[in-house]
Protein backbone atom coordinates (compact mmCIF):
# COMPACT_ATOMS: atom_id res chain seq x y z
CA UNK A 1 0.00 0.00 0.00
CA UNK A 2 1.51 3.30 -1.08
CA UNK A 3 0.68 5.20 2.08
CA UNK A 4 2.98 8.08 1.15
CA UNK A 5 0.54 8.98 -1.65
CA UNK A 6 -2.50 9.13 0.64
CA UNK A 7 -4.03 12.45 1.52
CA UNK A 8 -4.39 13.21 5.23
CA UNK A 9 -7.60 14.60 6.71
CA UNK A 10 -7.36 17.70 8.94
CA UNK A 11 -8.84 15.52 11.73
CA UNK A 12 -6.02 12.93 11.75
CA UNK A 13 -4.72 13.97 15.19
CA UNK A 14 -8.18 13.44 16.71
CA UNK A 15 -8.51 10.01 15.09
CA UNK A 16 -5.19 8.82 16.48
CA UNK A 17 -6.13 10.17 19.90
CA UNK A 18 -9.39 8.15 19.78
CA UNK A 19 -7.49 4.96 18.83
CA UNK A 20 -8.76 4.76 15.25
CA UNK A 21 -7.64 2.06 12.86
CA UNK A 22 -6.71 3.95 9.69
CA UNK A 23 -7.12 2.52 6.17
CA UNK A 24 -6.71 3.85 2.64
CA UNK A 25 -10.03 4.92 1.10
CA UNK A 26 -10.51 6.85 -2.15
CA UNK A 27 -6.93 8.10 -1.94
CA UNK A 28 -7.27 9.18 1.70
CA UNK A 29 -5.96 7.80 4.98
CA UNK A 30 -9.29 7.39 6.81
CA UNK A 31 -10.54 5.85 10.08
CA UNK A 32 -12.36 2.56 9.42
CA UNK A 33 -13.26 1.98 13.08
CA UNK A 34 -12.54 3.01 16.67
CA UNK A 35 -14.17 0.80 19.33
CA UNK A 36 -15.79 -1.54 16.78
CA UNK A 37 -18.08 -1.34 13.78
CA UNK A 38 -21.14 -2.91 15.42
CA UNK A 39 -20.81 -0.70 18.50
CA UNK A 40 -20.50 2.40 16.32
CA UNK A 41 -23.45 1.33 14.16
CA UNK A 42 -25.66 0.98 17.25
CA UNK A 43 -24.45 4.34 18.61
CA UNK A 44 -25.82 6.04 15.49
CA UNK A 45 -29.11 4.08 15.52
CA UNK A 46 -29.79 4.77 19.20
CA UNK A 47 -27.76 7.85 20.23
CA UNK A 48 -25.35 9.93 18.21
CA UNK A 49 -22.19 9.27 16.19
CA UNK A 50 -19.67 11.51 14.45
CA UNK A 51 -17.91 10.65 11.17
CA UNK A 52 -15.01 12.41 9.49
CA UNK A 53 -16.19 13.41 6.00
CA UNK A 54 -13.30 15.79 5.29
CA UNK A 55 -12.36 13.63 2.30
CA UNK A 56 -15.54 14.64 0.49
CA UNK A 57 -15.42 17.49 -2.01
CA UNK A 58 -16.75 21.00 -1.40
CA UNK A 59 -17.60 22.98 -4.53
CA UNK A 60 -18.93 26.53 -4.57
CA UNK A 61 -20.89 27.90 -7.54
CA UNK A 62 -22.15 31.46 -7.81
CA UNK A 63 -23.24 34.22 -10.12
CA UNK A 64 -26.34 35.05 -12.11
CA UNK A 65 -27.19 32.00 -14.17
CA UNK A 66 -25.51 29.59 -11.71
CA UNK A 67 -28.83 27.90 -10.90
CA UNK A 68 -29.77 27.60 -14.56
CA UNK A 69 -26.36 26.10 -15.36
CA UNK A 70 -26.52 23.57 -12.50
CA UNK A 71 -29.98 22.61 -13.70
CA UNK A 72 -28.52 21.78 -17.11
CA UNK A 73 -25.93 19.34 -15.69
CA UNK A 74 -27.81 17.84 -12.69
CA UNK A 75 -30.91 15.61 -12.63
CA UNK A 76 -32.98 17.18 -9.85
CA UNK A 77 -34.64 20.59 -10.35
CA UNK A 78 -32.12 22.93 -8.78
CA UNK A 79 -34.26 26.00 -9.39
CA UNK A 80 -37.06 24.60 -7.21
CA UNK A 81 -34.81 25.09 -4.18
CA UNK A 82 -35.25 28.20 -2.04
CA UNK A 83 -32.20 29.76 -0.38
CA UNK A 84 -31.43 27.61 2.68
CA UNK A 85 -32.62 24.36 1.07
CA UNK A 86 -30.72 21.43 -0.39
CA UNK A 87 -31.42 18.17 -2.17
CA UNK A 88 -29.86 14.95 -3.41
CA UNK A 89 -29.09 15.01 -7.13
CA UNK A 90 -26.97 13.29 -9.78
CA UNK A 91 -24.56 14.34 -12.50
CA UNK A 92 -24.85 12.18 -15.63
CA UNK A 93 -22.88 11.54 -18.77
CA UNK A 94 -24.51 11.87 -22.22
CA UNK A 95 -25.52 8.18 -22.06
CA UNK A 96 -27.48 8.81 -18.87
CA UNK A 97 -24.90 6.96 -16.73
CA UNK A 98 -23.93 8.29 -13.32
CA UNK A 99 -20.74 10.33 -13.02
CA UNK A 100 -21.44 11.23 -9.40
CA UNK A 101 -24.20 11.63 -6.87
CA UNK A 102 -24.07 14.72 -4.68
CA UNK A 103 -26.04 17.10 -2.50
CA UNK A 104 -26.66 20.59 -3.83
CA UNK A 105 -27.53 23.32 -1.32
CA UNK A 106 -28.79 26.78 -2.30
CA UNK A 107 -27.00 29.07 0.14
CA UNK A 108 -28.26 32.34 -1.41
CA UNK A 109 -30.19 33.68 -4.38
CA UNK A 110 -27.22 33.06 -6.72
CA UNK A 111 -24.91 30.92 -4.61
CA UNK A 112 -24.67 27.14 -4.29
CA UNK A 113 -22.70 24.69 -2.19
CA UNK A 114 -22.14 21.18 -3.57
CA UNK A 115 -20.80 18.18 -1.63
CA UNK A 116 -19.40 15.47 -3.91
CA UNK A 117 -17.73 12.07 -3.42
CA UNK A 118 -14.04 12.05 -2.46
CA UNK A 119 -13.02 9.68 -5.25
CA UNK A 120 -14.74 11.86 -7.86
CA UNK A 121 -13.40 15.32 -6.92
CA UNK A 122 -10.95 15.62 -9.87
CA UNK A 123 -13.37 14.05 -12.41
CA UNK A 124 -16.31 16.20 -11.25
CA UNK A 125 -14.17 19.35 -11.29
CA UNK A 126 -12.95 18.64 -14.83
CA UNK A 127 -16.43 17.77 -16.10
CA UNK A 128 -17.93 20.92 -14.62
CA UNK A 129 -15.06 23.25 -15.55
CA UNK A 130 -15.27 22.09 -19.17
CA UNK A 131 -18.95 23.10 -19.27
CA UNK A 132 -18.75 26.30 -17.24
CA UNK A 133 -20.58 29.16 -18.95
CA UNK A 134 -19.50 32.80 -19.02
CA UNK A 135 -20.51 34.67 -15.86
CA UNK A 136 -20.74 31.67 -13.51
CA UNK A 137 -18.04 31.21 -10.85
CA UNK A 138 -16.98 27.70 -9.97
CA UNK A 139 -14.50 26.83 -7.23
CA UNK A 140 -13.31 23.46 -5.97
CA UNK A 141 -12.43 24.38 -2.38
CA UNK A 142 -12.18 20.79 -1.09
CA UNK A 143 -8.69 21.11 0.39
CA UNK A 144 -9.66 24.09 2.56
CA UNK A 145 -12.49 22.37 4.47
CA UNK A 146 -12.91 19.85 7.23
CA UNK A 147 -16.24 18.05 7.37
CA UNK A 148 -17.97 15.88 9.94
CA UNK A 149 -21.33 14.11 9.89
CA UNK A 150 -23.16 14.08 13.23
CA UNK A 151 -25.83 11.40 13.00
CA UNK A 152 -28.42 9.74 15.19
CA UNK A 153 -31.59 10.53 17.15
CA UNK A 154 -29.59 12.62 19.65
CA UNK A 155 -27.92 14.77 16.96
CA UNK A 156 -30.30 17.74 17.50
CA UNK A 157 -29.40 17.91 21.20
CA UNK A 158 -25.69 17.72 20.31
CA UNK A 159 -26.27 20.67 17.95
CA UNK A 160 -27.85 22.67 20.80
CA UNK A 161 -24.78 21.97 22.93
CA UNK A 162 -22.17 22.95 20.33
CA UNK A 163 -24.08 25.90 18.79
CA UNK A 164 -26.24 27.14 21.69
CA UNK A 165 -28.99 29.54 20.72
CA UNK A 166 -28.69 28.76 17.00
CA UNK A 167 -31.40 27.09 14.95
CA UNK A 168 -30.68 23.70 13.41
CA UNK A 169 -31.73 23.87 9.73
CA UNK A 170 -34.87 21.96 8.73
CA UNK A 171 -34.53 18.60 6.94
CA UNK A 172 -32.25 19.00 3.87
CA UNK A 173 -31.69 22.63 4.86
CA UNK A 174 -28.44 24.56 5.10
CA UNK A 175 -27.31 27.46 7.33
CA UNK A 176 -24.05 29.28 7.86
CA UNK A 177 -22.77 30.50 11.23
CA UNK A 178 -19.94 32.84 12.22
CA UNK A 179 -18.49 31.46 15.44
CA UNK A 180 -15.56 31.86 17.79
CA UNK A 181 -14.09 28.88 15.93
CA UNK A 182 -14.46 30.21 12.40
CA UNK A 183 -17.09 29.99 9.71
CA UNK A 184 -19.32 26.91 9.87
CA UNK A 185 -21.76 25.52 7.31
CA UNK A 186 -24.37 23.18 8.81
CA UNK A 187 -26.53 20.94 6.58
CA UNK A 188 -29.41 18.82 7.90
CA UNK A 189 -28.44 15.84 5.77
CA UNK A 190 -26.61 12.55 6.16
CA UNK A 191 -25.85 9.09 4.88
CA UNK A 192 -26.99 6.85 7.73
CA UNK A 193 -30.80 6.76 7.61
CA UNK A 194 -30.98 8.70 10.87
CA UNK A 195 -31.68 12.33 11.71
CA UNK A 196 -28.54 14.41 11.90
CA UNK A 197 -26.45 17.14 10.37
CA UNK A 198 -23.20 17.64 8.53
CA UNK A 199 -20.86 20.37 9.70
CA UNK A 200 -18.24 21.92 7.44
CA UNK A 201 -15.57 24.22 8.79
CA UNK A 202 -12.22 25.67 7.77
CA UNK A 203 -9.61 22.89 8.00
CA UNK A 204 -7.67 24.68 10.77
CA UNK A 205 -10.76 24.59 13.05
CA UNK A 206 -11.64 20.97 12.26
CA UNK A 207 -10.19 19.30 15.37
CA UNK A 208 -11.77 21.95 17.61
CA UNK A 209 -15.23 21.14 16.25
CA UNK A 210 -14.60 17.38 16.40
CA UNK A 211 -13.65 17.76 20.07
CA UNK A 212 -16.71 19.93 20.82
CA UNK A 213 -19.06 17.39 19.20
CA UNK A 214 -17.50 14.35 20.89
CA UNK A 215 -17.51 16.19 24.24
CA UNK A 216 -21.25 16.76 23.67
CA UNK A 217 -21.71 12.97 23.58
CA UNK A 218 -21.19 11.86 19.97
CA UNK A 219 -19.38 8.52 19.51
CA UNK A 220 -16.50 8.52 16.98
CA UNK A 221 -17.53 6.32 14.04
CA UNK A 222 -15.48 5.10 11.08
CA UNK A 223 -16.07 4.14 7.47
CA UNK A 224 -17.02 0.58 8.50
CA UNK A 225 -20.13 1.71 10.36
CA UNK A 226 -20.82 4.34 7.69
CA UNK A 227 -21.06 1.50 5.17
CA UNK A 228 -23.35 -0.77 7.23
CA UNK A 229 -25.59 2.20 8.12
CA UNK A 230 -25.96 3.45 4.55
CA UNK A 231 -26.51 -0.08 3.23
CA UNK A 232 -29.37 -0.68 5.70
CA UNK A 233 -30.89 2.61 4.50
CA UNK A 234 -30.29 1.56 0.84
CA UNK A 235 -28.31 4.71 0.09
CA UNK A 236 -26.18 3.93 -2.98
CA UNK A 237 -22.39 4.17 -2.91
CA UNK A 238 -20.90 5.59 -6.09
CA UNK A 239 -18.38 3.16 -7.58
CA UNK A 240 -20.32 0.22 -6.10
CA UNK A 241 -24.03 0.79 -6.67
CA UNK A 242 -23.74 3.66 -9.14
CA UNK A 243 -21.62 3.64 -12.27
CA UNK A 244 -21.25 5.39 -15.63
CA UNK A 245 -22.85 2.28 -17.19
CA UNK A 246 -26.10 2.48 -15.16
CA UNK A 247 -28.75 5.20 -15.14
CA UNK A 248 -30.46 6.62 -12.05
CA UNK A 249 -33.69 5.04 -13.33
CA UNK A 250 -32.07 1.61 -13.06
CA UNK A 251 -30.75 2.59 -9.63
CA UNK A 252 -34.28 3.37 -8.43
CA UNK A 253 -33.50 7.08 -7.98
CA UNK A 254 -36.26 8.37 -10.27
CA UNK A 255 -37.59 10.75 -7.58
CA UNK A 256 -34.33 12.69 -7.87
CA UNK A 257 -34.66 13.00 -11.65
CA UNK A 258 -36.92 15.72 -13.10
CA UNK A 259 -37.53 14.83 -16.74
CA UNK A 260 -40.01 17.72 -17.07
CA UNK A 261 -37.72 20.59 -16.00
CA UNK A 262 -36.09 21.09 -19.41
CA UNK A 263 -32.96 19.66 -20.96
CA UNK A 264 -30.01 18.39 -18.92
CA UNK A 265 -27.04 16.20 -19.72
CA UNK A 266 -28.22 12.60 -20.03
CA UNK A 267 -31.92 13.45 -20.23
CA UNK A 268 -32.36 12.21 -23.80
CA UNK A 269 -30.90 8.81 -22.87
CA UNK A 270 -33.18 8.56 -19.83
CA UNK A 271 -36.29 9.38 -21.86
CA UNK A 272 -35.31 6.71 -24.41
CA UNK A 273 -34.61 4.16 -21.68
CA UNK A 274 -37.94 4.88 -20.03
CA UNK A 275 -39.72 4.28 -23.37
CA UNK A 276 -37.76 1.09 -24.13
CA UNK A 277 -38.04 -0.36 -20.61
CA UNK A 278 -35.28 -0.61 -18.03
CA UNK A 279 -32.67 -3.32 -18.72
CA UNK A 280 -32.05 -3.79 -14.98
CA UNK A 281 -33.12 -2.60 -11.56
CA UNK A 282 -31.06 -2.15 -8.41
CA UNK A 283 -32.67 -4.61 -6.00
CA UNK A 284 -32.39 -5.13 -2.25
CA UNK A 285 -31.58 -8.74 -1.34
CA UNK A 286 -31.87 -10.38 2.06
CA UNK A 287 -30.24 -13.74 2.78
CA UNK A 288 -32.86 -16.35 3.66
CA UNK A 289 -30.66 -18.42 6.03
CA UNK A 290 -27.71 -17.79 8.27
CA UNK A 291 -24.92 -17.44 5.71
CA UNK A 292 -21.50 -15.97 5.18
CA UNK A 293 -21.81 -12.20 4.66
CA UNK A 294 -22.75 -11.38 1.07
CA UNK A 295 -20.14 -9.02 -0.39
CA UNK A 296 -19.68 -6.85 -3.47
CA UNK A 297 -18.93 -8.76 -6.72
CA UNK A 298 -20.30 -12.12 -5.53
CA UNK A 299 -22.27 -13.64 -8.47
CA UNK A 300 -26.07 -13.78 -8.33
CA UNK A 301 -27.53 -16.93 -9.92
CA UNK A 302 -31.04 -17.84 -10.97
CA UNK A 303 -31.91 -21.30 -12.25
CA UNK A 304 -28.23 -22.06 -12.68
CA UNK A 305 -27.64 -18.95 -14.84
CA UNK A 306 -25.68 -15.90 -13.78
CA UNK A 307 -28.17 -13.06 -13.31
CA UNK A 308 -25.79 -10.38 -12.09
CA UNK A 309 -23.43 -9.63 -9.24
CA UNK A 310 -23.74 -7.90 -5.89
CA UNK A 311 -22.80 -4.23 -5.98
CA UNK A 312 -22.70 -3.97 -2.15
CA UNK A 313 -23.26 -6.35 0.69
CA UNK A 314 -22.70 -7.08 4.34
CA UNK A 315 -24.28 -8.20 7.58
CA UNK A 316 -26.99 -5.87 8.84
CA UNK A 317 -26.43 -5.23 12.56
CA UNK A 318 -30.10 -4.21 12.88
CA UNK A 319 -31.57 -7.27 11.14
CA UNK A 320 -28.84 -9.74 12.09
CA UNK A 321 -28.80 -11.15 8.57
CA UNK A 322 -26.92 -10.71 5.32
CA UNK A 323 -28.14 -7.90 3.07
CA UNK A 324 -27.00 -6.78 -0.36
CA UNK A 325 -27.77 -4.68 -3.42
CA UNK A 326 -27.63 -5.99 -6.99
CA UNK A 327 -28.70 -4.92 -10.47
CA UNK A 328 -31.06 -7.66 -11.66
CA UNK A 329 -33.04 -8.13 -14.88
CA UNK A 330 -36.67 -6.94 -14.56
CA UNK A 331 -37.95 -10.54 -14.52
CA UNK A 332 -36.10 -11.11 -11.22
CA UNK A 333 -36.70 -7.68 -9.69
CA UNK A 334 -40.12 -8.24 -8.08
CA UNK A 335 -40.34 -8.38 -4.28
CA UNK A 336 -40.38 -11.99 -3.09
CA UNK A 337 -38.28 -13.34 -5.98
CA UNK A 338 -35.74 -15.96 -4.89
CA UNK A 339 -32.19 -15.96 -6.27
CA UNK A 340 -28.95 -17.59 -5.14
CA UNK A 341 -25.75 -15.86 -4.09
CA UNK A 342 -22.57 -17.74 -5.03
CA UNK A 343 -20.25 -17.51 -2.03
CA UNK A 344 -16.96 -19.33 -2.69
CA UNK A 345 -18.68 -21.83 -4.98
CA UNK A 346 -21.64 -22.59 -2.72
CA UNK A 347 -25.13 -21.25 -3.45
CA UNK A 348 -27.01 -19.45 -0.65
CA UNK A 349 -30.66 -18.41 -1.14
CA UNK A 350 -31.62 -14.74 -1.03
CA UNK A 351 -34.92 -12.96 -1.52
CA UNK A 352 -35.68 -9.65 -3.22
CA UNK A 353 -37.18 -7.41 -0.53
CA UNK A 354 -38.67 -3.94 -0.44
CA UNK A 355 -36.20 -1.05 0.00
CA UNK A 356 -34.94 0.13 2.40
CA UNK A 357 -33.85 -2.59 4.84
CA UNK A 358 -34.13 -0.08 7.66
CA UNK A 359 -36.34 2.97 8.09
CA UNK A 360 -36.00 5.07 11.23
CA UNK A 361 -38.99 5.16 13.57
CA UNK A 362 -40.97 8.31 12.72
CA UNK A 363 -40.61 11.05 15.32
CA UNK B 1 -5.05 -11.50 27.24
CA UNK B 2 -2.17 -13.97 27.81
CA UNK B 3 -2.20 -17.36 26.11
CA UNK B 4 -1.39 -20.59 28.02
CA UNK B 5 2.37 -21.08 28.30
CA UNK B 6 2.54 -23.94 25.79
CA UNK B 7 0.75 -21.94 23.08
CA UNK B 8 2.64 -21.70 19.79
CA UNK B 9 1.94 -19.26 16.97
CA UNK B 10 2.24 -19.17 13.18
CA UNK B 11 3.25 -16.05 11.24
CA UNK B 12 -0.33 -16.07 9.87
CA UNK B 13 -1.68 -15.65 13.46
CA UNK B 14 -3.08 -19.11 14.22
CA UNK B 15 -2.29 -20.74 17.56
CA UNK B 16 -1.84 -24.40 18.54
CA UNK B 17 -0.60 -26.06 21.77
CA UNK B 18 2.79 -27.77 21.89
CA UNK B 19 3.29 -31.17 23.48
CA UNK B 20 -0.12 -32.54 22.42
CA UNK B 21 -1.16 -35.40 20.16
CA UNK B 22 -4.44 -33.63 19.53
CA UNK B 23 -4.64 -29.86 19.95
CA UNK B 24 -7.20 -27.15 19.53
CA UNK B 25 -6.39 -24.45 16.97
CA UNK B 26 -7.55 -20.84 17.03
CA UNK B 27 -6.45 -17.34 16.15
CA UNK B 28 -4.44 -14.99 18.33
CA UNK B 29 -5.70 -12.14 20.48
CA UNK B 30 -3.82 -9.80 18.13
CA UNK B 31 -5.55 -11.32 15.07
CA UNK B 32 -9.05 -11.03 16.53
CA UNK B 33 -8.40 -7.39 17.43
CA UNK B 34 -7.12 -6.68 13.92
CA UNK B 35 -10.13 -8.37 12.29
CA UNK B 36 -12.68 -6.52 14.42
CA UNK B 37 -16.23 -7.80 14.88
CA UNK B 38 -16.33 -11.40 13.62
CA UNK B 39 -19.72 -12.30 12.15
CA UNK B 40 -19.34 -15.70 10.49
CA UNK B 41 -17.01 -18.70 10.61
CA UNK B 42 -16.73 -21.53 8.11
CA UNK B 43 -15.15 -24.61 9.73
CA UNK B 44 -13.53 -27.62 8.01
CA UNK B 45 -15.12 -31.05 7.71
CA UNK B 46 -14.23 -33.52 10.47
CA UNK B 47 -12.02 -36.27 9.09
CA UNK B 48 -10.28 -34.03 6.55
CA UNK B 49 -6.51 -34.53 6.25
CA UNK B 50 -4.68 -31.25 5.89
CA UNK B 51 -1.13 -30.12 5.12
CA UNK B 52 0.68 -27.44 7.12
CA UNK B 53 -0.23 -24.05 5.65
CA UNK B 54 -3.37 -25.36 3.91
CA UNK B 55 -6.40 -23.04 4.03
CA UNK B 56 -8.93 -24.88 6.21
CA UNK B 57 -11.39 -22.33 7.58
CA UNK B 58 -12.71 -18.86 6.80
CA UNK B 59 -13.30 -16.12 9.34
CA UNK B 60 -15.52 -13.27 8.20
CA UNK B 61 -15.44 -9.91 9.93
CA UNK B 62 -17.77 -7.05 9.04
CA UNK B 63 -15.24 -5.83 6.49
CA UNK B 64 -13.52 -8.90 5.01
CA UNK B 65 -13.19 -12.68 4.69
CA UNK B 66 -9.87 -14.15 5.91
CA UNK B 67 -8.51 -17.65 5.35
CA UNK B 68 -7.33 -19.63 8.37
CA UNK B 69 -4.42 -22.01 7.73
CA UNK B 70 -3.57 -25.33 9.38
CA UNK B 71 -0.54 -24.63 11.63
CA UNK B 72 0.66 -28.23 11.19
CA UNK B 73 -0.14 -31.30 9.10
CA UNK B 74 -2.73 -33.67 10.48
CA UNK B 75 -6.36 -34.70 10.59
CA UNK B 76 -9.31 -32.54 11.67
CA UNK B 77 -10.94 -34.54 14.48
CA UNK B 78 -13.42 -32.05 15.94
CA UNK B 79 -14.86 -28.60 15.22
CA UNK B 80 -16.19 -26.08 17.74
CA UNK B 81 -19.95 -26.05 17.07
CA UNK B 82 -20.70 -23.17 19.51
CA UNK B 83 -18.27 -20.89 17.65
CA UNK B 84 -20.01 -21.67 14.34
CA UNK B 85 -23.27 -20.56 15.95
CA UNK B 86 -21.80 -17.55 17.80
CA UNK B 87 -18.77 -16.27 15.89
CA UNK B 88 -18.12 -13.41 18.33
CA UNK B 89 -16.70 -15.98 20.80
CA UNK B 90 -13.46 -15.61 18.82
CA UNK B 91 -13.43 -11.90 19.70
CA UNK B 92 -14.24 -12.38 23.37
CA UNK B 93 -12.21 -15.51 24.19
CA UNK B 94 -9.74 -16.38 21.39
CA UNK B 95 -7.66 -18.78 23.55
CA UNK B 96 -10.65 -20.39 25.27
CA UNK B 97 -14.25 -20.76 24.06
CA UNK B 98 -13.22 -19.25 20.71
CA UNK B 99 -11.13 -22.21 19.53
CA UNK B 100 -11.98 -23.28 15.96
CA UNK B 101 -11.10 -26.97 15.44
CA UNK B 102 -8.98 -29.79 16.87
CA UNK B 103 -6.25 -31.37 14.83
CA UNK B 104 -4.52 -34.76 15.34
CA UNK B 105 -0.93 -33.94 14.54
CA UNK B 106 0.80 -36.04 11.87
CA UNK B 107 4.06 -35.48 13.78
CA UNK B 108 3.81 -34.64 17.48
CA UNK B 109 6.85 -32.37 17.40
CA UNK B 110 5.55 -30.12 14.61
CA UNK B 111 3.90 -27.59 16.93
CA UNK B 112 7.06 -27.26 19.07
CA UNK B 113 8.95 -25.56 16.24
CA UNK B 114 6.48 -22.66 15.97
CA UNK B 115 6.89 -19.30 17.76
CA UNK B 116 6.23 -18.95 21.46
CA UNK B 117 4.22 -15.94 22.63
CA UNK B 118 7.26 -13.69 23.13
CA UNK B 119 8.63 -14.46 19.66
CA UNK B 120 5.17 -14.02 18.15
CA UNK B 121 4.65 -10.68 19.92
CA UNK B 122 7.99 -9.50 18.54
CA UNK B 123 7.04 -10.60 15.01
CA UNK B 124 4.13 -8.18 14.44
What does the model show?
- Chain A has 363 residues and is of the alpha+beta class.
- In chain A, 20% of the residues lie in helices and 34% in strands.
- Chain A has helices at residues 12-17, 37-46, 66-73, 121-130, 155-162, 206-215, 223-232, 267-276, and strands at 7-8, 21-25, 28-33, 49-52, 57-62, 85-92, 98-108, 111-116, 137-140, 145-151, 174-179, 182-187, 196-202, 219-221, 281-287, 299-302, 305-315, 322-328, 338-343, 346-353.
- In chain A, the strands form 4 sheets. In chain A, strands 11-12-13-10-4-14 form a 6-stranded mixed sheet. A 6-stranded antiparallel β-barrel of chain A has the order 15-18-17-16-19-20.
- In chain A, helix 2 (37-46) crosses helix 7 (223-232).
- Chain A is globular and about 65 Å long.
- By secondary structure, chain B is an alpha+beta fold.
- In chain B, strands 1-2-3-9-8-5 form a 6-stranded antiparallel sheet.
- Chain B has a single domain, classed as Beta Barrel (OB fold (Dihydrolipoamide Acetyltransferase, E2P)), CATH 2.40.50.
- In chain B, strand 6 and strand 7 (65-69) form a beta hairpin.
- Chain B starts with 6 loop residues before the first strand and ends with a helix.
- Classes of the chains: A alpha+beta (363), B alpha+beta (124).
- Chain A binds chain B through residues 21, 32-33, 36-38, 224, 228, 290-293, 295, 314-315, 344, and chain B through 36-37, 39-40, 42, 58, 60, 62-63, 65.
- State the low-pLDDT regions of chain B, or none: none
β-sheet strand percentage of chain B: 25-35%
Number of strands of chain B: 9
Instruction: Tell me about the largest β-sheet of chain A.
Output: 6 strands, mixed
Proportion of helical residues of chain B = 10-25%
Number of domains of chain A: 2
Give the full name of the CATH homologous superfamily of chain B.
RNA polymerase II/Efflux pump adaptor protein, barrel-sandwich hybrid domain
**Pattern of helices and strands of chain A:** EHEEHEEHEEEHEEHEEEHEHHEEEEEE
Tally of DSSP β-strands of chain A: 20
Q: In DSSP terms, counting alpha (H) and pi (I) runs of 4 or more, how many helices of chain B?
A: 4
